[in-house]
Amino acid sequence: MDDAIKQKILALLDEHRILTLATLRPDGWPQATTVGYGNDGLTLYFLCGLESQKAANLARDDRVSLTIDHDTPNVMEITGLSMAAHAQRIDDRAEAEKALGLLMQKYPEPQEPLPFPKPAPEEVAIFRVTPVVISVLDYTKGFTHADLVMC
């Protein structure tokens, strides 16, 4: 992967904290949901409820598609990422704690006190997202311009 494009991807990952994740339901229909994420380089982490539809979908099929972007008043300033990736549930407590820490680092200090304690790793389903293909959308380089990166 070209270093300049990797730096662009990392900058976009660092600028955002919410992504839209698509998983596959048992009937084959895609399910898109919004989740917060943390990242360590190109590896992303998110969590969801233990009994959530998302966790059940991923237990059956770990393939996901996701987007990361933001609104802009000028169409020629649109930037963002879309990815095809695999999402594996984390069972290792040390990695789960790391993932929770990365998720919280995305939010500025101080946060209002949460109305509940931070979840322990065993109270939520935490997933590691490993990209396979990343599309880097950058309209500043031309209308609908995207660079496709194989990971």
Helix content: 10-25%
Give the DSSP E fraction (strand runs of 2 or more residues): 35-45%
What is the H level of CATH, i.e. the homologous superfamily?
Electron Transport, Fmn-binding Protein, Chain A
CATH architecture: Roll
- SSE order, one letter for each helix or strand: HEEEEHEEHEE
CATH domain class name: Mainly Beta
- Main sheet: strands, sense, barrel: 8 strands, antiparallel
Instruction: Provide the residue-averaged pLDDT.
Output: 93
| Poorly predicted segments | none
What's the end-to-end separation, in Å?
7 Å
Instruction: Count the E strands.
Output: 8
CATH topology: Pnp Oxidase, Chain A
Helix/strand-derived class? alpha+beta
**DSSP helix count?**
3
General form? globular
Q: How many whole angstroms does the radius of gyration measure? A: 16 Å
Number of self-contained structural domains: 1
Entry summary:
The model has no long low-confidence stretch (mean pLDDT 93). This protein is α+β, with helices and mostly antiparallel strands.
